[in-house]
Design goal:
With 161 residues, this protein is mainly alpha-helical. It contains 9 helices and 2 strands, in the order H-H-H-H-H-E-H-H-H-H-E. The longest helix has 16 residues.
């Protein structure tokens, strides 16, 4: 193997090792027109946890996106507005903080909008039977909910801290 090929292979291995681990955070991004754009742009530098945990107004999301561009985020000018619009709709300042579905009490769960006491009880029952949930799809299947109904609550739940 030539020296150049060895260096290229080494750099590729280093780049792969530094790719942020997702750990299921991308599952918590709500469906939307520009979801894939956010995933491709933001997930190239960090995992989606920092995005999913954030709650910001549209101007604050715009500042955040511009800050990421200053740090080297690979965005085209025409991508900025769609990303800011998606983030400000998906994670507005009045959206409740995420609740860990694997450790939450029934009281914690019923505080979330669209999460009824019946759904909270079903979550606790499913958690007792199945053990901790690794991701949104595992919880959805355990609850036997259709995707459109589940999406109403999925953006409010996380599966690890």
């Amino acid at each position: 193997m030539t020296r150049i090929a060895a260096v290229a292979l080494f750099l590729l291995a280093v780049a792969y090792a530094q790719k942020p681990k997702d750990e299921g955070w991308t599952d918590l991004l709500p469906a939307g027109t520009d979801r894939d754009l956010v995933l491709n742009s933001c997930n190239s530098c960090h995992n989606m946890r920092v995005v999913v945990d954030a709650r910001k107004s549209r101007p604050d999301w715009a500042k955040c996106v511009n800050d990421m561009i200053q740090r080297g985020a690979p965005l085209f000018p025409e991508e900025i507005d769609p990303i800011v619009a998606y983030l400000s709709k998906a994670f507005p300042p009045d959206l409740p903080k995420l609740v860990n579905v694997n450790t939450a009490t029934k009281e914690d769960l019923v505080k979330l909008p669209s999460l009824t006491p019946e759904i909270a009880a079903r979550i606790l029952d499913a958690r007792t039977k199945a053990g901790p949930f690794k991701n949104a799809e595992a919880l959805r299947q355990a609850l036997g909910m259709e995707k459109p109904d589940f999406q109403k609550i999925s953006a409010l739940l996380k599966y690890r801290d």
